[in-house]
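Appendix B. Raw example, untouched.
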Amino acid sequence: MHPTYRLLALKSQIRNMSSPFAIVAGVGPGTGATVARKFGAAYPVALLARNPANYEDAVKDIEAEGGKAIGILTDVSDAKSVKDAVAQIQKEFGSDRCAAAVFNVGGKFIRKPFLELSQEEFESGWEANGRGAFLFSQAILPLLLNSTDLQHPPTLIFTGATAAMKGSALTAAFSTGKFAKRSLSQSLAREFGPKGIHVSHVNVDGVIDIPKTKEWLKDAGPDSKIQPEAIADAYWYLHTQPRTCFTQEIDVRFSIKRYLAYQITDCLIR
C-alpha cells in the first residue's frame, strides 16, 4: 500500500476509535441539567455554565449512573472562554467528534419600558443569545461535521422561547436576542442540513417545573407546567431523527389552555 493511503487508513482507524461526546451549554437546575443527564446516558457529556454550582450535581449524577461527565466554567458570550472550553473537552474526552450540542443559554431577562432602556441593557439580551449562539456554533460545528458517520445524525439544538416568536411590550432587549438565536438556527439548518447536520430550534412556551417555580401557577392545575424530563425527551427525539426527516423547529407547551394575565418567558429555562 502506498504510504499516503496507509496514513489515511491509520487516521481513519484512529478516528473510529475516538468516542463521540455531547455538550450542553447553559446548564442550570431545569432544562440544562436534565438534558445533560439524558444525553449522558448515551455519550460522555460536557456541561458548561458560568457558575460551577449549576453543573456540579448533574455531573455527579451522570457519573453515579456509570456515565462520564465534566463541568467547565464558561461564558458563552466570550470568544476565548468558548474556545478554551471546547479545547478542554477534546482533551478530556480524547475526541474531536461531537454527536450532539445543545445551546440552552437563557440570557438576562429585562422587563422595562423601551425609552428607559440603556444601551448596555439592550445589548445584554443579544450578547448571550445572539453572540453566544454564534460563538458556540462556530466552535462546535467542525466537531459535528466530523461525526456524520454515527448512528444518529450529529445534532445542534437551540433552546428558544415565545419571545423568539413575538416581541411583547417591555421586552425589547430580551426578544431581540431570542429572535437573533432563532434566525441563526434557521440559517444554519439550511447551510449544514445538506452536510448531514441536524439543526433545530425548540420554542419552550411556558413555565418549567423546577424548584424556582414551585409557587407559580399553584391554582392552575397539575398540567400547568412543563416537565424538564419531557423537554429532554423531545431533544433526544430530535437527535435520533433520521436524515430523511429533520425537524427544524418544534413548540413545547403544557396541554391546558392559557388565559394568563402575564407574559411567560424563558428566564426560567435555566
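End of appendix B.
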